[in-house]
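Inputs:
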Amino acid sequence: MELKAVMRIAMDAGEILLSNGAETYRVEESIIKICNGFGYSCDAFVFPTGIFLTVRSPDDESESSVRRVKTRTLNLSKIDRINTFSRNMVTNPSSFEEATKELEGIRTSDYYPAWIRLLCSAVVAFAYAFLFGGNLNDGIVCLVIGAVVFLLNSQMVKSAYLPFLTFFIVGFACGFLSLLSQLVITDTHVYIIIIASVILYLPGVSLTNGVRDLLAGDLVSGLTRLGEAVLVVLAIGMGAGLAISISPTIRASAH
Amino acid sequence: MKHIIIAFIGSLCPAVLINVDRRNLIWAGFSGLLGRLLYDHLVAIYPGSALVSVFLGTAVVAVYSEVMARVRKTPATIFSIPGIFPLVPGVDAYHTIQSITEQDYVEAAVFGINVVAKASLIALGVLVVSAVFRKIMLNKKQR
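Outputs:
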């Protein structure tokens, strides 16, 4: 296959990996695997926000390109499928058309249906209410708040993606709704409800990926991701803290 | 028994939300179950060992994830990310923020340090295990 075609495929695969929450070393390894599979050597340099790639042919012809990656979500099944794709490229390289078609299929593959996701985020909040030692009332309140906050979050992500503001509002909504629930249902533990409803939005992935990046020697990416995790925690914390501090009367009746 | 089911659901449902493939969902659930089970067990036997227990719980999740990654031929993160959910120090994090809003900064520092320590230990647990596994795999390749 031609130099440019290989570069295109490697770059597309890398972009899908990076924008769906893969670790930096996995993106670099997959790009290198694909290039080597077609008999080219390459250097890939990956940041959480972009990819630099130079591909060299055996007769010392080379081609470089940069790809900016702006949106970063989390979709592990895409990572899984690209992983398989790059492994297949090593064992039996396919043609350009086949490869682009497969990549397009992976790129456009969808999440689970919305109602399943809604149900799951409600159930997560429900389950964690018990895990943190709550009673049945806590669980039921969490079930409702979990669903409401999921709808709120997905609406915000859809309309205008401002990551830290979104997390701030999610934190605030969790805190405020939890305190509000005190007025309707007594015999609940407000702190358990807040934690259980917010837990889904904590940056566990940034944390573990950051550490894995640092471990693999990608120092810049690792520190960037850890910094992102700290900022997200602060945004959620400030949101929840604001909700707690503006409702002293509700909080007083809670204790 | 109740806690086992909750820990299982508590990492299965996050796995759905980060779009883990259908055939790996159950195994992602078991990951969180194992970690939380060990953590609860250790805390029950040795009260006051919460920090070490968080580390060991995460280490179990990480070992399970690396092994399952080889068995199921997928990235280890598919099992480790849902697996650490039940170990997140949520209660401490809440008390930190609540203390800050009450302007009780000594209390906030105590809880805050706990949160940072537990989060670091979770990260460290994943780090140590995957470092060992990567080393083993590299040695195997070189032979």
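Remarks. Chain A touches chain B through 52 residues (CB under 8 Å). Chain A has two domains: 3-108, 114-254.
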